[in-house]
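User: quick one, sequence for these tokens?
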């Protein structure tokens, strides 16, 4: 019996489809690395955050620095999300979150920490590791002191908790502002909010400037240039002066609770130099310590290495 040509083609297509389905079934599922971009309302403010990974996995709360936002974690999040639930909010006045004027919102580190505390509760974060970077350190340490039972580990990347970390030229004009909050002193700090200063933060101390994407300052600077945002940043420059007085409290938290801690610090940072990293050794027993040959925004040049160090570190900890 002769099989019609059309039937032969149809049978071949069916066999090909069956093979394709069985082949796919044998392949492992793709990592849960898709980053979702979400917003929740906290005290009338829209708080933007990035989220990825299975919600029943151990959580990593990523707290960004100045002058960036959760954008600084755009590559780290998918690098961790196959195994961890990763959440990165933008503070008020930063990134895609609400940015009310200084007349409408009191921009202090106490208030930022209060908003982020409420954020963690609203999105259901009961336990977490905290990534502390720059401004993320005073916010994260406030959370840790208030709720030590929620903190499983710390990951510290150029996040200061010791006086030694502020003993450098960068902080001299800011410390003067803490002592004398005048318009003249504040105007002298506006140079830190310019495009040149933003580029400097990303490129100073790096090994290879060609490895640093201009998309970084291209994202950050238009947000700094929004009407009223300089006043927000000046308010936070002043409020940063409230943090050193809390350092003894944060250090006591470290000594008492001994959170397992990973230090991944850009040692060429002129803002938070390695002098601020070493004192953690005084207070912590379970500490992994890495100085990286890069600058302030270490993720931009050494993101892959940092992701690997985080994965290796967390794999050794008992976290849920």
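Assistant:
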């Amino acid at each position: 019996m002769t099989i019609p040509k059309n039937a032969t083609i149809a049978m071949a297509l069916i066999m090909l489809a069956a093979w394709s389905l069985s082949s796919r079934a044998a392949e492992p599922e793709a990592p849960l690395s898709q980053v979702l971009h979400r917003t929740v309302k906290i005290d009338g403010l829209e708080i933007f955050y990035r989220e990825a990974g299975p919600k029943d996995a151990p959580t990593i709360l990523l707290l960004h620095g100045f002058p960036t936002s959760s954008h600084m974690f755009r590559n780290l999040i998918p690098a961790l999300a196959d195994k961890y639930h990763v959440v990165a909010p933008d503070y008020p006045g930063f990134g895609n979150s609400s940015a009310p004027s200084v007349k409408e919102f009191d921009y202090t580190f106490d208030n930022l920490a209060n908003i982020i505390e409420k954020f963690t509760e609203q999105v259901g974060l009961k336990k977490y590791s905290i990534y502390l970077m720059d401004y993320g350190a005073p916010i994260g340490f406030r959370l840790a002191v208030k709720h030590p039972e929620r903190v499983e580990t710390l990951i510290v990347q150029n996040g200061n908790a010791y006086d030694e970390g502020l003993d450098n030229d960068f902080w001299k004009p800011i410390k003067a502002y803490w002592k004398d909050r005048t318009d003249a002193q504040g105007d002298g700090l506006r140079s830190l909010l310019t495009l040149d200063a933003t580029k400097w933060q990303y490129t100073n101390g790096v090994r290879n400037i060609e490895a640093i994407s201009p998309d970084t300052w291209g994202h950050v600077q238009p947000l700094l240039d929004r009407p009223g945002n300089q006043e927000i940043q000046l308010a936070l420059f002043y409020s940063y002066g409230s943090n050193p007085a809390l350092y003894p409290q944060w250090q006591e938290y470290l000594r008492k609770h001994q959170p397992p801690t990973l230090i991944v610090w850009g040692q060429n940072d002129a803002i938070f130099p390695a002098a601020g990293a070493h004192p953690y050794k005084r207070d912590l027993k379970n500490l992994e310590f890495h100085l990286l040959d890069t600058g302030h925004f270490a993720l931009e040049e050494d993101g892959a290495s940092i992701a690997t160090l985080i994965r290796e570190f967390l794999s050794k900890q008992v976290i849920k």
